[in-house]
Amino acid sequence: MRRGFNLLMAIFMLLLLAGLAMFTLSAARIHAHFFADTYAKEQAGLFADAVLEAALMKIEANRTDLSFSSPDGRFAGAVTVERCYVTQSYNDENANCKKGVNVTLIDTPASNGYMLLRIEVNSTAGSFLTPIRITKRTLQRP
User: How many whole angstroms separate alpha carbon 58 and alpha carbon 52?
Assistant: First the structure.
């Protein structure tokens, strides 16, 4: 009788240890996935900041191609000029506003030339487990 009870107790202890090991591995997998996603989102945010700076330089150089990709190919970014704010004495020669952009006339000369920019950064297909998309809107003066 005693041997049978010891055998059942040993089986119960093995099952308990196996369950505890499975729980530990599951928690470790969840934490690793969370940290990998957080790292990738932080990379996308930093790339969005770089896209904004590069787009401002391209606007200053009167270039119209405002799409970018990261050197490692994991992210693609695009910048759209949504609105351009100019004073009443607006003319095409001294403004960075492109054709097709909504121009809003303003009264304050200090705010002349500001642009409302929309930055979209997307992860490329297959680069991460969960797709990443970041959209920012900012008011900048090139």
Answer: 10
